[in-house]
Each structure stands twice: as C-alpha cells, then as structure tokens.
Amino acid sequence: MMFQRDHRQTSHAHAQAYARYELLYTFVDFAAALLFVVGSVFFFYDSLTYAGTWLFLIGSILFGCKPTIRLVREVRLAAMGRPKDSEQR
C-alpha cells in the first residue's frame, strides 16, 4: 500500500531509498525557492525583467516536480515489497 509512514522503516533498503528521495525533494524545494527569490530581485531592474521571468518559470516547474518526486518515491517503495520477516508483524 502506498503513502504509509512505515514504508521507510520496512527494511534497510527501503530506508535508503526513502532518504535518497527526501534529499532530492529537499534540493528541488531549495532550488525553486532560490529561483523565486533571485527572480524577484531581478524584477527591480528593467534590464533583468526577462531573466527574472525565466527564473520564475523554472522555479514554478521545480515546484511542480515536488509531488511527482513523492509519487515516484511511493511507487518505488511499494514495488520493493515487504521482506518476509516484516510480514509477520
């Protein structure tokens, strides 16, 4: 089953996969926020407005990637299955 908190603790491999996806998610989050901040500053200068618009667009795309990363993580963790010894809990 997907989107269950215990997925990350099912096995060591699950915990490692969960951690990798969390790092990716956090990187995307910071990158999107940084692009929005820099894009906002660029809007104060007429000569940088075009670049600021592109930064906003890229930041928006990154924010859109966040739910995709979570969904891919959950599908992967669910596909990994449960080890035999954890099914007996």
Tags for this entry?
mainly alpha, rod-shaped, 89 residues, disordered C terminus
The general outline is: rod-shaped
Rg, Å, rounded: 19 Å
SSE run? HH
- Tell me about the largest β-sheet: none
Distance between the termini: 16 Å
Q: Helix proportion of residues, in percent?
A: over 70%
Strand content: under 5%
Account of the 3D structure:
The protein is an all-alpha fold and 89 residues long. It has one domain. It has helices at residues 12-42, 49-80. Helix 1 runs antiparallel to helix 2 (49-80). The longest helix has 32 residues, at 49-80. Mean pLDDT is 86; it is low at 85-89.
Provide a compact summary of the structure:
The chain is built from two helices and no strands.
How does the SSE layout of this entry go?
Blueprint: H1 12-42, H2 49-80
Helix pairs in contact: 1-2
